[in-house]
Every structure is written in C-alpha cells, then in structure tokens.
C-alpha cells in the first residue's frame, strides 16, 4: 500500500534510549522511528534466536484502547466480526474491523475483562481506528447508550516471543503461566509493576504482549533482558517471523478492499454473527460465506530461484496472469522462498503449480498450506 510522504518528525517510543544503547539501526514505520536490527545481530540472527530462544520486540507504536460501559459489547459488535458476548472473561480473539463494502479496515486483538474490552490494533491504522471508534461511539451515545472509548496513552507495549519466553517471564511474575493458554489476558505484577499480560503475539511462537506503565517500561524490559536466553529484536525479524507463521500484514496482505472470505479469515466471524449479522458490511461478507463467493483467495506460495517480493505477478502454468504477490521472503527457518499472494479462486487449491515473474524472469511456484512453519502456541494440559 502506498503511503503519503510526511514532513512530520518521527515519533519515538519510551524505549528509544535503550535501543540506542544496544546499537539499534532505525527505520521509519507508520510515523515512528523503530529499531530494524541491532549491532552484532542481523535480521537472520534475530529471527532464528526468536524461534530457538526468546526475543523482546518494542511494539509501543501500536494503538491500545479500552472500551467501557454497559453497552460496550453492542457497540463494538457493530464494528467487528467477533462474538464478544460469548467471549469468556480473560479470553482474547483476533477480529476484523470491517467497512460497509465488506472490506477489512484493520485487524485487531480484543480481550474480554470483567468491566471492559481491551483492544490492540495496528500502528499504521491508529489514527483511523481511533477516529472510527470515537465516531461510532458518539453516534450510539446520542441514542442513549452507555459506552466510552478510552485511548491508553500512559502504557507502552512490548512483545516477548519464543519458546523460552515463559521461563523468562516466570522469573518476574507470580502468575502461574503454565495455566495461562494462548489467546488469554490477565492483569498481574511483572517485576513488581502492575501490567496487562496477554499470551499472544505475531511470530507463530509462544509468547506474551506486556502493556507496561510507560514510566516503568525501560526498567521492566531491562529485567527481561537479564535472562541470557532473551535478546532484543527489531521490525525486520518481526516481519519474517509473521510471514513464516502465515500472519497478515495490514496494508500488504489485507486492506479495505479485501473481504474476510478472500483473505481466508472466515474463521474470525463468530457463529452467532454469521446468523445475526449486525456488523458493517455484513450483507456482503455473509453473502460471500454462503455462496463461497469472491473472485480471489489469499494463498501461500513456495517458489524456486530468486525470492518473490510484493507486487510480483503470479502466472498460471500456461502463462495467464492470475494474481499478485503481497509479501515474500527467503524463509530463514526453512531455507526456501515463501510468499503470500492473491490468486483467482480457481488457482487457489493446495499443490496447484504456478509461476511468478521475478526481475523479468519467471520462477516456478506451488500453492502451499499456511502456516509455513507450524505454530508453537501454549496449551494448558
């Protein structure tokens, strides 16, 4: 997705000085100056370290909001496809903000608490998402509803990801993490600081996202880094990890013109929501679900030769243009090239042979099941 040039100064997270101290190389992302890689540890090193041990990612640029009021479920269910009324307290779910045309305005993780809904959404959509929430909340308030949207601007967000993440966090909290399954959230102390702990992430590995008071985030992060299994990692590794895990990047693999059916995200639409609707674009989305409609599908590709990058055209075996790559990398964990693409529905079946145009040449590819690397999410025994 093309992004308009901006002359506004880049924002910095509360961990900026810590990143500098660890030799970070920065890059602009969604208006923020974010660490890309660190001295002595390139993107490949960070990627593999996360898969084998654990890494800390600064994700403080993401939008955190809390939805309160007795009508909070009715309100948010107008905007997302999840069944929030049936989500258990402490449970989290991946959901989608949709628009009137059935497109995806953003993806988000929502956690149910006793008195509120905790919502995390993408940095690149932060201003748009907040305005969207506030606009619809105001409309419902005018009808007499009890709902309020509160931006959480006094907490920073870090992600601790990898198979050693539980052991690293256990040193700093009294919470029994063994009894905390993936996609749940709790409030508990970390290094003596009250934090929101969500067992979730964007890497396909076990891990946590910690919402920490901004005044304390540097000290808590430093405590996490005292564990020899834990290192800092930047945006470059985060992108390659999420692609191996088959997870979408908003603005690349999904956008406002993509429906949940086309994106392979029908599973995010709750069962009750499929029968009742009531969210923006429901007629379009539910119609596509019923008819298995839509002209295209998001697929995984494994390819030979030079790696395919976003924008590369996808061809059928006989040369017909059937789609476009949205993300692609040489996968560090696999030693082969992987990509996501949208292709015509008739070419989306697993093992379908295709070709990709890369640097003026065509390379062989095949439709592959995602995730490319099996997920390693924690389950309670």
Automatic annotation (TrEMBL):
InterPro entries: GcvT, GcvT/YgfZ/DmdA, GcvT/YgfZ_C, GcvT_C, GCVT_N, TrmE/GcvT-like. It catalyses: N(6)-[(R)-S(8)-aminomethyldihydrolipoyl]-L-lysyl-[protein] + (6S)-5,6,7,8-tetrahydrofolate = N(6)-[(R)-dihydrolipoyl]-L-lysyl-[protein] + (6R)-5,10-methylene-5,6,7,8-tetrahydrofolate + NH4(+). The keyword Aminoacyl-tRNA synthetase does not apply. Gene3D superfamilies: Aminomethyltransferase beta-barrel domains, Aminomethyltransferase fragment, Probable tRNA modification gtpase trme, domain 1. It is found in: Mitochondrion. Pfam families: GCV_T (PF01571), GCV_T_C (PF08669). Substrate binds at residue 209. Keywords: Aminotransferase, Mitochondrion, Transferase, Transit peptide. The keyword Translocase does not apply. One of its GO terms (cellular component) is mitochondrion. The glycine cleavage system is composed of four proteins: P, T, L and H. Belongs to the GcvT family. The glycine cleavage system catalyzes the degradation of glycine. This is Aminomethyltransferase.
């Amino acid at each position: 997705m093309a992004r308009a040039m901006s002359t506004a100064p880049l924002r910095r997270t509360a961990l900026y000085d810590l990143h500098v101290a660890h030799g970070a190389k920065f890059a602009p992302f969604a208006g923020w100056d974010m660490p890309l890689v660190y001295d002595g540890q390139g993107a490949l090193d960070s990627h593999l370290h996360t898969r084998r041990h654990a890494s800390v990612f600064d994700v403080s640029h993401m939008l955190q909001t809390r939805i309160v009021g007795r009508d909070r479920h009715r309100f948010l269910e107008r905007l997302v496809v999840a069944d929030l009324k049936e989500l258990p307290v402490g449970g989290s779910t991946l959901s989608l903000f949709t628009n009137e045309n059935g497109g995806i305005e953003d993806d988000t993780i929502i956690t149910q608490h006793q008195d509120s809904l905790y919502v995390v959404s993408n940095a690149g959509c932060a201003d748009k998402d907040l305005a969207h929430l506030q606009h619809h909340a105001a409309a419902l308030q005018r009808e007499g509803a009890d709902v309020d949207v509160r931006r959480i601007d006094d907490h920073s967000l870090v992600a601790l990801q990898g198979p050693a993440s539980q052991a690293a966090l256990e040193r700093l909290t009294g919470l029994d993490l063994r009894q905390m399954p993936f996609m749940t959230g709790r409030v508990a102390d970390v290094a003596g600081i009250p934090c929101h702990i969500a067992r979730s992430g964007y890497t396909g590995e076990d891990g946590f996202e910690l919402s920490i008071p901004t005044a304390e985030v540097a000290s808590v992060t430093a405590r996490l880094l005292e564990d020899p299994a834990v290192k800092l990692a930047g945006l470059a590794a985060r992108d390659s990890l999420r692609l191996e895990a088959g997870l979408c990047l908003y603005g690349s693999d999904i956008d406002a013109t993509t429906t949940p059916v086309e994106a392979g995200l029908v599973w995010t639409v709750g069962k009750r929501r499929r029968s009742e609707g009531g969210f923006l674009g429901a007629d379009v989305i539910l119609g596509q679900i019923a008819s298995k409609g839509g002209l295209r599908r998001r697929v995984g590709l494994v390819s030979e030769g030079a790696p395919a990058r976003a924008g590369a055209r996808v061809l059928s075996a006989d040369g017909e243009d059937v789609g476009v790559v949205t993300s692609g990398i040489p996968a560090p964990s696999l030693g082969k090239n992987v990509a996501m693409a949208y292709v015509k529905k008739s070419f989306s079946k697993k093992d379908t042979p295709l070709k990709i145009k890369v640097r003026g040449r065509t390379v062989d590819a095949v439709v592959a099941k995602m995730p490319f690397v099996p997920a390693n999410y924690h389950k309670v025994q």
